[in-house]
Amino acid sequence: xxxxxxxATDFLCISxxxxxxxxxxxxxxxTFSHIDGLMGMLGLMLPFITxxxxxxxxxxxxxxxxxxVMRVLLAWFIAQLVLAGLSHAYPGGELRKxxxxxxxxxxxxxxxxGRCTIHALPSLLRSWRFAPARIAIVxxxxxxxxxxxxxxxxTRNAFVPxxxxxxxxxxxxxxxxxPLVCELSAFKQLVRIKNLREIWIINPLxxxxxxxxxxxxxxDEFVNIRVLPLFEGSMxxxxxxxxxxxxxxxxxxxxxxxxxxxPKELFDRAFALFVxxxxxxxxxxxxxxxxxxxxxxxxxxxxxxxxxxxxxxxYKFRTMFQDADLPGSVVQARKGDAxxxxxxxxxxxxxxxxxxxxxxxxxGEMSVVGPRPHAVEHxxxxxxxxxxxxxxxxxxxGITGWxxxxxxxxxxxxxxxMEARVKFDMHYIRHWTFWMDMKIIALTIIxxxxxxxxx
Length: 455
What we know:
Strand content: 5-15%
Helix content: 40-55%
Order of helices and strands: HHHHEHEEEHEHEEEHHEEHHEHEHHH
Oligomer: single chain
């Protein structure tokens, strides 16, 4: 609902900042050349290209004010960097350089102010259409605080539960200050008193539900009655979505993100290339250390499963003695494992043996962030023991991931550890955003290189 307002406000902020900064820099209008005019036109168009790639205009209910501000600033600065690069190729750019600097600064301030103002509208203008809709909830099963929290998180800034009707309860009560009633008459009375216009029936997926009694009770009321399917935690993906513009109910499907993954793809290649160039001296030093530590190749290659089951060779520095594993078997390294070399122990402990995997990222076989790929032999073992284990491979595997920064690195000898790792991977797949990737990379840098369970 607010997306058109965001777009209009952003355009006014950017164009207004361009005019103000032009007035500050170009006192003499004759010094404003046709090249400057061309750059101005590009400067008005480029941001809305970067805004699309960085998903600046996400649905209002999924965006906090801080996230919205950070997204729009990043997209704006990227657009201005591109514009500055183009401007540098043309002569007479001294005044233009000052203009772009003023423009970037003023527009950034105006964009932040505009975003914060629009995000404040729902609370400032409660009686307007911008305000979160006040709803009544019908829960034909035991409602609890966890249910309310899940609804609140999924409908933030869009819907506010005011009353819950649960006929299975023995008596009326409250949940997080929301009245919960067990009699239909009391529920109808509260709906009228609170002047509610939305009734949502929370219903488990694929289970039949009777709504005739509600239709009969509210047939003369101007109340909307909707069914909200409740997707249990076992669902591997966000169930309601669209496929190329067609509304669908996903039961088991690869996440459809289309253009949304373009920033991730571009970032992966650029980041991998930058890292490989930046750490090339360290890679050379590690290669020499591995070669001197024991006979055998420097690099260790092992088959891993990639996106949609495609098998690829993963690159790692060799950390074990040559021929340490029997053909056709892969045994996880354990504490004090005699197969691991002295140098290999340091590399595994610090995850430096994983650095060559940036080559896999550069080749498009892996991503910087994603579920960690396991040996194919381990996949065959765990897929029959852990629910949705193989769903991890519906997206590209990563060098680091949400499970790794939450402590699940290294050995997974107990089935419970692997189950926990899979749960974190499922959470990442369901809630992936470009900013979540940035958070995981930052956490990996801060605390992810050392792990007590890495041998």
